[in-house]
Design goal:
Blueprint lengths: L8 H6 L3 H8 L16 E10 L4 E9 L7 E8 L7 E10 L1
Antiparallel strand pairs: 1-2, 2-3, 3-4
Length: 97
């Protein structure tokens, strides 16, 4: 469904929070998990920061259009609860760079 880049069907169904599932369902024309309307040609994940006491980790994710143009950055937040598989909690879409 989402070609070579980005979360696959299994991750989109089981690896995201209920909040993020609702957000995605409310925006069917927009790929909420990648903060994009088109399929990216490439994705880079920056350094991860964690706040153990808050149980949250985050990283800046960069997507690139065809030919490396159209770079867009967003922040991805994950749940650090070690009693269950890692889960994408939310994304904060930024502006194009």
């Amino acid at each position: 469904m989402f070609r070579e880049h980005g979360p696959g069907d299994f991750a989109r169904k089981y690896g995201i929070s209920p909040h993020l599932k609702e957000k995605a369902a409310a925006n069917p024309e927009f790929d909420v998990l990648l903060c994009a309307q088109n399929f990216p040609a490439a994705i880079d994940v920056g350094p991860v920061t964690t706040a153990q006491s808050a149980g949250v980790g985050w990283a800046t994710v960069s997507t690139y259009g065809n030919g490396g143009s159209g770079k867009a950055d967003f922040t991805a937040y994950v749940d650090l609860d070690a009693t269950r598989p890692i889960q994408l909690m939310d994304v904060g879409c930024g502006s194009e760079g």
